[in-house]
Amino acid sequence: MHMSFTASKDVPADAAVHAVPVFPGLVVPEGGVEVDTAHLPPVGFEGKPGQSHALLADDGGTVVVVGLGDPATLTAETFRKAGAAVTKAAWRSPSVAVALAESGGEAVDRVAAARALAEGMGLAAYRFDTYKSNGKPCAIEQVTVVGGGGARLQAALDKAAVVVEAVCLARDLVNEPAAAMTPTRLAERAREVAKAGGLGVRVLGADELRAEGMGALLGVAQGSDEPPCFIELTYEPDGRPRGHLALVGKGITFDSGGLSIKTADGMTTMKTDMGGGAAVIAAMGALRRLGVRARVTAYVPATENMPSGRAVKPGDVLRARNGTTIEVLNTDAEGRLVLADALSVAVEQQPDAIVDIATLTGAQVVALGKKIAGLMGNDEGLVTQVQAAADRAGEPVWPLPLPDDYRSHIDSEIADIKNMGNPGQAGTLIAGLFLKEFVGDVPWAHLDIAGPARADSDDAYTPKGGSGFGVRMLVELAAGFERPGRRR
Ligand code: BES
Ligand code: MN
Ligand code: ZN
């Protein structure tokens, strides 16, 4: 499965499927290719977003009309969904032509529409077939976007291809079973990404973690037979960097809960608990090919969270890298522990901003569900910047508060702080307040992706399983990065 996208004025001779996005009533967007309606059944196709209908053309080829819905509500997301519908309809055809319409009007210009369409097509073609005896991979290799060539159009398609590859890499990392995607293996994959993406890479092992005082990460790791590690990736742009952005991703390759063990049900999807780390690693790999001008450094603390005779016990106290002591009252609140060390390390480099991304709390899923991430932070400008990047990328996030008033919930009887608040109360915010203790006064934003990191069922361009959520917004954030202004 590797799809390449070419902008062209002509339909290539080998394109067995010709897709045409249309509005309801088969109205072809302005500048689009007319559809031969002779073979269309009178009912059934309404042109709703994502709806598709295949027609046999006179030349023996197949025309697939794809609905765009109401022209008044057209967004880039409409084109991503239309792209997904094209991929599903043309699954077995190696060469596909897609008519690009003028269409978007003011909301979506032609170039943005093409990029979104290509993203939707590429993302919908993803399958994790590694362990399937009879996988049915998508056969589409060549997509020709018809409707005028042009360097700007081709550049947009090239960007889409890079983003698709990055998202699919993150999905692969998440979908691998925990037995295959151990911290060590994740680090190996990060090295490969670094090599291919022109990044610096450094991996600290257990001994170095001890030497560096990463007591919180080590505390989580001590119950596991798999050695932990700390993955650092560095992107140096050509020319003078436009700011320095640090990314931190939670890399729990399996979360059993530790001694505060999860239920059997609660554990089934916990290989996903490195979804934040996967998003960070995959996004980093795309930066050079996208010509990002900011300097970007990334930190992924990686370990399993397991119960054993050596595991951290409720009531134990850990010392994080920045000296803060943490009473561990629930060993299942391990994400904030490993992030404590990673954020401390990130702060030492004094970046202009830190953004972390983590499958951090079940409460996030309760509050916002499976499709919307929670966004928090200590700097309004940065939070707004992350929100805007997520909006542009088409990944839904919603702002949540970090109330000073709740800070006392993590006061500990014997240590500086404890790793949980009052059960059943604002779990996502408490986790955010905990992380805030480790970012000093560096502008920081926190994304809780506990819900969106995994799709429960197939959806437009996101198949069931690891979603790669976060990759698109992180890439978009890095590409448009501006140093946040002075803090309040
Ligand atoms: N990895 C989980 C959060 C999670 C839950 C992600 C469900 C995806 C789906 C995290 O480590 C965790 O267990 N959090 C606890 C914290 C609590 C013990 C304070 C939670 O949210 O229940
Ligand atoms: Mn946990
Ligand atoms: Zn976890």
The CATH C-level name of the largest domain is Alpha Beta
* Rounded Rg: 23 Å
Strand tally? 20
The gross shape turns out to be elongated
- At the fold tier of CATH, the topology name of the largest domain is Aminopeptidase
How far apart are the termini?
48 Å
Structural class: alpha/beta
How many independent structural domains?
A: 2
Outline the low-pLDDT stretches. none
Can you give keywords for this protein?
488 residues, alpha/beta, Leucine Aminopeptidase, subunit E, domain 1, Aminopeptidase, 2 domains, 9-stranded mixed beta sheet, 6-stranded mixed beta sheet, 20 strands, 20% strand, binds ligand BES, binds manganese (II) ion, binds zinc ion
Topology:
Layout: E1 4-8, E2 17-22, E3 52-56, E4 62-67, H1 76-89, E5 95-99, H2 110-124, E6 142-146, H3 151-175, H4 183-197, E7 200-204, H5 206-211, H6 215-221, E8 229-235, E9 244-249, E10 251-255, H7 264-267, H8 275-286, E11 295-305, E12 316-319, E13 325-328, H9 335-348, E14 353-358, H10 362-368, E15 373-377, H11 380-393, E16 397-399, E17 417-418, H12 427-436, E18 444-448, E19 454-455, E20 465-466, H13 471-479
Helix pairs in contact: 1-2, 2-3, 3-8, 4-8, 6-9, 8-13, 9-12, 11-13
